[in-house]
């Protein structure tokens, strides 16, 4: 996704490790479950879980490998993982948190806007436009492309309202309809905001060799938590999706608490 993309330099040991581990997961899952498609989804989900953790905790890259370990629970009872939604969340994070170290381009924003529209109509839910609108609001507040954000944000907001009225797609679950797994994910994603606040204060290099803005890093972390919460209530997540996001939260939180609180 141009500026939002990240080149995987295999000369770095950690990058090579995750690529090899993802391929190994793909092959093992294929043999274990007897379906190539399951192997592709699980191998891809391992890589994306690692990538999400890297964006949420850029100051402590090894927390992503703890996430990978937790994400392997999906091997035990695989049904489906919405890979495109995970990828979309990853790109939203990079749009907001400024880890690229580069100025956002019009093409970056419009490409992600198009991706959002695709998901919104494909999944028949205006929730994706709502989350994109929240992301663009943070661009208006914290990014160097505030003017561009001011133009795109109301357009996305209007489309959200129009789709919601036209298709009546935003139907949130009430508390009685939530499962135990839903409740655990809601609790963990909410409590994670407190850890994210401290994480965002750790000086973090961006991809261009500069220093990432703490306010933008925290805005990305907060957006991720809110997005997961909204998707739970909109019933957009499979059981495997929920375990993947739980693995991300657990890996980031436990690594930070163990390295900065328990053993500091």
TrEMBL record:
User: Which sequence ranges form a coiled-coil region, renumbered to this chain?
Assistant: none
Report the domain of life of the source organism: Bacteria
Q: Which UniProt keywords apply?
A: Membrane, Transmembrane, Transmembrane helix
> Where does the record locate the signal sequence feature?
none
> Which regions span the lipid bilayer?
12-33, 62-92, 104-121, 127-143, 148-166, 178-199, 219-237, 243-263
For the keyword Oxidoreductase, the answer is: no
This chain belongs to the protein called: Uncharacterized protein
Source species:
Alkalibacterium iburiense
């Amino acid at each position: 996704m141009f500026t939002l993309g990240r080149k995987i330099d295999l000369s770095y040991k950690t990058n090579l490790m995750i690529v090899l581990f993802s391929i190994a997961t793909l092959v093992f899952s294929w043999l274990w479950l007897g379906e190539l498609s399951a192997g592709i989804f699980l191998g891809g989900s391992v890589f994306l879980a690692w990538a999400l953790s890297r964006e949420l905790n850029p100051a402590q890259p090894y927390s992503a490998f703890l996430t990978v370990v937790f994400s392997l629970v999906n091997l035990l009872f695989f049904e489906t993982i919405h890979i495109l939604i995970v990828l979309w969340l990853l790109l939203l994070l990079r749009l907001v948190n400024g880890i690229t170290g580069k100025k956002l381009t019009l093409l970056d924003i419009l490409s992600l806007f198009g991706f959002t529209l695709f998901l919104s109509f494909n999944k028949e839910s205006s929730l994706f436009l709502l989350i994109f609108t929240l992301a663009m609001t943070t661009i208006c507040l914290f990014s160097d492309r505030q003017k561009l954000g001011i133009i795109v944000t109301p357009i996305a907001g209007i489309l959200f309202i129009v789709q919601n009225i036209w298709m009546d797609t935003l139907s949130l679950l009430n508390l009685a309809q939530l499962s135990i797994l839903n409740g655990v994910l809601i609790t963990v994603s909410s409590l994670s905001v407190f850890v994210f606040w401290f994480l965002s204060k750790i000086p973090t290099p961006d991809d261009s060799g500069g220093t990432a803005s703490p306010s933008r890093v925290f805005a990305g972390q907060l957006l991720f938590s809110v997005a997961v919460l909204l998707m739970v209530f909109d019933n957009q997540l499979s059981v495997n999706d929920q375990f993947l996001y739980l693995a991300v939260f657990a890996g980031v939180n436990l690594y930070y608490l163990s390295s900065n609180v328990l053993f500091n």
